[in-house]
Design a protein that fits this description.
The chain is mainly β and 475 residues long. Helices cover 6% and strands 42% of the residues.
Amino acid sequence: MPLSRLIASAALVLTALAGCGTIAVTDNAGVAPAGPATPTASRRPSFRQPHELVSRNGRLAVRLVVESRTVRLAGQDVRALTYNGEYMPPTIRLRPGDRLDLTLVNRLGEHTNLHTHGWHVSPGDNSDNIYVHIKPGQTFHYAYRLPKDLAPGTYWYHSHAHPLSEAQVFAGLSGAIVIDGLDRYLPPGLRHVTERLIALKDFQVHAGAIPTANIDSNAPTTRTVNGLVDPIMNIRPGETQLWRLANIGADIAYNVQLQGVRFYVVAQDANPVDRVWSAKTLFMPPGSRFDVLVQGPPAGRSRLITTAYSTGPAGDSYPEATLATLASSGDPTTPARLPAKFAPIDDLSRDRIAQRRVITFSENDQGNEFYINGKPFDPNRIDVRAKLNTTEEWRVRNLANEQHTFHVHVNDFQLMSVNGRPYRFRGWQDTVQLPSRGEVVIRMRFRDFTGKYPLHCHILNHEDRGMMANIEVLR
């Protein structure tokens, strides 16, 4: 076991013996190790959200400066990669049909770029073009024209700079996007409820910085909500709130529970559902999002946690961790009646299938090289050619002894089955977890946009090490 892991393990043991808080354990250089931070109750921060950049009159201009900065995380100064000097950068808030003009300034010593995860926009030129390399010292101007029918919900933005995406996102280069419009599907009494963005990121610290090389996603890691460790969130008993849950980290999954409270899902991956469905637990692989309604429990405190979870014998095993603490207090209110039906959805189950394909995810025995259809990523190779305005059915197989996270750009998909069992369709998705040694079947319609864009594993370590392929959509 590496020395850093031994030190981290010792820190966890001493924490358990103390019975509260984290005992600071340092190496000979006096640097805090990579183990997860746990604030004491008296030091637990208040919940806060990143500030918002909001469109006006159908337009928003944003300037993001990418640079390495020292930020305050979990009570310590940490070197991180930032947008505008912030580990949790501004939320970009728009409406369907808006125009976003985004200037990205690169002050790193390596190339970077920007991906608007989940957007149904052009993949070419200076729109959502992930093949752009913005070199050190360069400035690049992105321009996005959002379709008027872009689905409302929660999206996010992050670096997609191959093969540096894991390092850059893990070190901090990710933020949230909100597309307004979910309220039109809610009954009038729920259209102005309190909203909470709950953006999930994790970090480790080595020698005073978040590491950008030799990242071990299975090592002890500190989970954060909006960059905060176990913040206190407030709600009244019976109050209904809209929570925007987003996993905007590089590699690890979250299996989210709010103890004693159910989540009522109104959108998944920024796709409104046809009927509101409830769950005690929401599984969130990297890149996934849920917009949910939550109703305040009786007075007291409840923990928002991610449960213990394993991605398979060749994958990672994550311990249970507290994400936030919900404090229910104040005058109780009668819980609102939640809607059953929600939004219209486009069901592809009756579409004519233009082509059926098999897409295979695999890896070598050492788990350090990853493939799609037996090949590592080549940015110049076209792996799938599809025709505009057709629907295809893909059987996506996983030959590995660990789960992988399938994600595709531009066009979301309909999940049809998992390991041969039909899936209850509620709305489209842009991410799905592939079972180890298993498969899913999806259907996807290639709408509106031609050009080249990727499909990949959204465990960014796997993407950077080859688990990505190119689609080209032609007329």
